């Protein structure tokens, strides 16, 4: 296995874990927290669902913890880090960042503790987590006059509101309302994911393939954002046909953008094609969601709500996430932008987990086996990431170590 050792690290030696460094940027603690929870929550859901207590219940807990407990957490870790680069101001660090992480942890524990009191504590803690994160982002984008990012804090706040509505429906056992609020949260997260990915995919691609020239597609991005937000609004007012149309257009714009980013030019770069694949799956998933809303293919597995949820959630968000977890962590940690064997294996394991889970949507005698195999691939994927990256995420960058030594 290739070792990703920076030349400066050879000179400086391996630094000790450092709490100040660990809490210096949002991606360090939140990437670890999100990935640990991704591993633990799937293990509980597939292999020990009896541990999920009331007032939460099986699928309600699973859907919540995957979307808000894992996917949104990783997205916030990225935004709290990237916004420091975009604006020149760090939105959260030190004790405030530590507090946000503790609030997140309290919510995870509370929902597994059971009982109305613990549930209420979880809702309050998680709501505070979203509110503080949104306000911190708002503060730096205004301070840094980063006008194109003014909408991001509102989207984060929207995810927090959808979370409260979802949890209320879960506590009341209202499955219809639960699915409605989950879809609102899913679409809001899709808008955030597409917004982020549309910026980073061409940028990362042109950095890694110097001769490659790609358009940023700002114009189509505005339409994509507009129709995505419109889908959320139409969901809130109960216009399902308009919501379906908006979702279909958003998905088609995403696939059109992808075609203009010359996907065949990055097939030799796994760190890039993994992002292209995740972006494509979100686009396809949004089109499938539109078909579901319009009642197309209702009698087939493609017409089930679980189909578009897993295409978007696993095929889109999670494939994007495993690519972003490696690329952005290596970049912000001052490491070479290269994959070792364990990182590449984590990509293939994630893709396998998605393929197996989608295959399990077709009822058969091997459905349970497929679910178990998907969970096993997922757990090993997340475990590999933690094994490889936690030692780097809790330590200073190699160049920072050298500067500290030189200053003595």
Query: How many distinct domains?
Result: 2
Q: How is the main sheet built? A: none
- Please state roughly what percent of the residues sit in beta strands, choosing from under 5%, 5-15%, 15-25%, 25-35%, 35-45% or over 45%: under 5%
Return the average pLDDT rounded to an integer: 94
Helix-residue proportion: over 70%
Question: Unreliable runs, pLDDT <50, ≥5 residues?
Answer: none
Number of helices: 15
Compute the gyration radius: what is it? 21 Å
Short key terms for the protein model shown above:
408 residues; mainly alpha; 2 domains; 15 helices
Chart the SSEs and their pairings.
Elements: H1 7-12, H2 19-22, H3 27-47, H4 58-87, H5 94-113, H6 116-143, H7 151-172, H8 175-208, H9 218-237, H10 240-260, H11 270-293, H12 305-332, H13 341-359, H14 367-393, H15 398-407
Helix pairs in contact: 3-4, 3-14, 4-6, 4-7, 4-8, 4-12, 5-6, 6-7, 7-8, 8-9, 8-11, 8-12, 9-10, 10-11, 11-12, 12-13, 13-14
What does this structure look like?
With 408 residues, this protein is mainly α. It folds into two domains: 16-173, no CATH class; 230-393. Helix content is 77%, strand content 0%. It has 15 helices and no strands. The protein has helices at 7-12, 19-22, 27-47, 58-87, 94-113, 116-143, 151-172, 175-208, 218-237, 240-260, 270-293, 305-332, 341-359, 367-393, 398-407. Helix 3 (27-47) packs antiparallel against helix 4. The relative contact order is 0.11. The mean pLDDT is 94.
């Amino acid at each position: 296995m290739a070792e990703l050792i920076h030349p400066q690290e050879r000179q400086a030696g391996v630094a000790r874990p450092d709490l100040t460094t660990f809490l210096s940027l949002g991606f360090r603690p939140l990437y670890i927290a999100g990935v640990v929870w991704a591993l633990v929550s799937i293990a509980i859901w597939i292999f020990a669902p009896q541990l999920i207590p009331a007032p939460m219940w099986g699928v309600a807990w699973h859907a919540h913890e995957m979307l808000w407990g894992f996917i949104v957490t990783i997205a916030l870790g990225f935004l709290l880090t990237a916004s420091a680069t975009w604006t020149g101001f760090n939105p959260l660090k030190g004790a405030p960042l530590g507090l946000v992480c503790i609030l997140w942890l309290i919510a995870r524990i509370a929902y597994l503790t059971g009982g109305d009191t613990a549930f209420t504590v979880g809702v309050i803690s998680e709501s505070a987590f979203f509110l503080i994160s949104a306000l911190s982002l708002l503060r730096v984008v205004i301070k840094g006059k980063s006008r194109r990012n003014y909408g991001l804090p509102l989207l984060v706040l929207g995810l927090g509101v959808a979370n409260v509505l979802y949890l209320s429906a879960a506590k009341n056992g209202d499955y219809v309302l639960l699915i409605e609020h989950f879809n609102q949260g899913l679409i809001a997260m899709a808008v955030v994911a597409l917004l982020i990915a549309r910026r980073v995919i061409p940028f990362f691609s042109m950095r890694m393939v110097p001769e490659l020239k790609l358009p940023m597609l700002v114009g189509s991005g505005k339409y994509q954002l507009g129709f995505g937000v419109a889908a959320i609004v139409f969901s809130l007012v109960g216009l399902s046909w308009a919501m379906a149309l908006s979702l279909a257009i958003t998905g088609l714009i995403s696939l059109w953008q992808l075609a203009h980013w010359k996907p065949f030019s990055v097939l030799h770069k796994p760190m890039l094609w993994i992002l292209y694949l995740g972006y494509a799956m979100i686009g396809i998933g949004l089109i499938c969601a539109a078909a579901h809303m319009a009642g197309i293919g209702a009698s087939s597995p493609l017409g089930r709500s679980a189909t578009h949820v897993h295409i978007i959630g696993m095929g889109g968000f999670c494939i994007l996430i495993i690519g972003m977890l490696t690329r952005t962590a290596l970049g912000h940690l001052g490491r070479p932008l290269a994959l070792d064997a364990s990182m590449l294996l984590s990509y293939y394991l994630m893709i396998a987990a998605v393929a197996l889970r989608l295959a399990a949507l077709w009822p058969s005698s091997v459905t349970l086996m497929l679910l178990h195999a998907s969970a096993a691939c997922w757990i090993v994927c997340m475990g590999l990431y933690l094994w490889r990256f936690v030692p780097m995420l809790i330590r200073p960058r190699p160049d920072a170590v050298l500067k500290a030594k030189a200053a003595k």
